[in-house]
Amino acid sequence: MIKTPAYVIEEEKLEKNLQILDNLQKQAGCKILVALKGYAAWSTFDLLEKYLSGATASGLWEAKLGNMKPWEVHTYSPAYKDDEIDEIAEISHTVVFNSFNQLERFENRVKDKALIGLRVNPGVSSAPVALYDPCAPFSRLGITKENFRADKLKNVSGLHFHALCEQLDTALERTLEGFEKNFGEYLKDMEWVNFGGGHHITRAEYNVENLIKIIKEFKSRYPNIKDVYLEPGEAVGLNAGYLEAEVLDIIDNGMKIAILDTSAEAHMPDVLAMPYRPEVRNAGKSGEKKYTYRLGGVTCLAGDVIGDYSFDESLKVGDRIIFEDMAIYTYVKNTAFNGVKLPSIVIKRKDGSFFVSREFHYEDFRDRLS
Predict the structure, then answer these.
(1) Do residues 180 and 278 share a domain?
(2) Residue 360 backbone phi and psi in degrees, to 5
(3) Do the annotations mark residue 234 as ligand-binding?
(4) CA-based diameter of the chain, in Å?
(5) How much is the average pLDDT of 314-327?
(6) Residue 270: count of CB within 10 angstroms of its CB
(7) C-alpha triplet 38, 194, 89: angle, nearest 5°
(8) Domain that holds residue 268
(9) Is the same domain home to 153 and 302?
């Protein structure tokens, strides 16, 4: 039995996702990059390298992480620091700028080391909430049509857009229509285009065949485009891991409350930020099964509540609770708020054995502070 709390990445499920993505690459003639902002378990990079074309980074540290493997590393940031841009250029296949100000400031330091791209804003909102909508009013992400400068493209070889969040192929169709309407006239001079992330390709409802069709038709319209990239993060680790926690105490304050050795605030922050209700293995909604509990975190934050769940049997101290789909946007965003121990990162091998890739200790918490 593994020690809790622990993120467990299931190797077999991860590889199934990668096989779907690899088939897409082969059928559509595109390249898939893992977005490290969503999935960054470098202990599984050997497996990812077998199937994917590279990684996409949001800055220097992620670029260095991606550079652990000899694949393509694409880097985009809303703005770059002067003392980091040279190293980023050295280790990146492509550097994407968010504005013409940044392009003009740094292009001469990048052009001989990496390909240069621009992120544009297609102006099509489809994300489920404004927090995750790069095309929302007053967005800082991407150059709008009104601010685009055709006379500044001398060193630019590609355009990048990212407007989706956990969405299906139909959302890409709408976004691509807006992208071509606003920026299609500039594509004749480009060598590559990046469709960004947010594509839920490995989700059961996703129409991969339609995505293949979309990419092929796009490439036929622009035969000069050598490479089409997609950079999903969630689709790589979707449903390929879980967070296992233990019940520490059960109290009653108008309803039964189980206090766990994990935390929404610290260990699965999107539960509160998005917000959403994670699935719990073998549990139902409140009142659906015989015994209902509110699952609460171990921090002092009053709102550190994961949700209300029901179970066939009453919970007791020492029971294990498994939160599904926790390989993405968890350990990359978690914190040691309240000095709560960070969950270990564990790999469940295809033979059923467990490999503890990383355990965290007091020193990890201490050394982040001063």
Answers:
(1) no
(2) -115, 145
(3) yes
(4) 68
(5) 98
(6) 16
(7) 80
(8) 241-326+334-366
(9) no
